[in-house]
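Revision sheet: structure tokens.
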Amino acid sequence: MPLIAFNKPYGVLCQFTDHSTPARRTLAEFGLPAAVYAAGRLDFDSEGLLLLTDDGALAHRLTDPRHKLPKTYWVQVEGTPQQAQLAALRHGVLLKDGRTLPAQVRRIGTPSLWPRDPPVRFRKTVPDAWLEIQIHEGRNRQVRRMTAAVGLPTLRLVRAAIGNVALLDLMPGHWRVVATY
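Predicted:
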């Protein structure tokens, strides 16, 4: 039973089929092993690490918030983060579906990433910055909603790690087996 690390490109669904019209890109085009499925989700407009497995119990352990598995994101935000905004993220942000758990947050330099297709819009008059945000929950679009709630809209979101499995040098659309059970 494999555990697969996959670098999900921007604009790809975390499922193997899409019944919408027009059909969107799915995991089916990347030559993943048969019978695996995504352990958790990564939004259509987000990129980075997605874990896949054929083991339902393992998928549950990886995604259930009770197991407190940290998820680390590199987030390009619009604006210059102020200490009060970072402190709000660290203490938990009130969203429509309740307060988030505290996050670990720090400013980082621009990570060494692949170009995004399509590129993030660039505005000369609006600064941007990169944050590393680590959360233990997995609410729908949580990181984007958290940064927006403190006045720092997300421009690009890349999941860099889940627990001790990191993206490392895995390029978009590529995968590797990280464990076999």
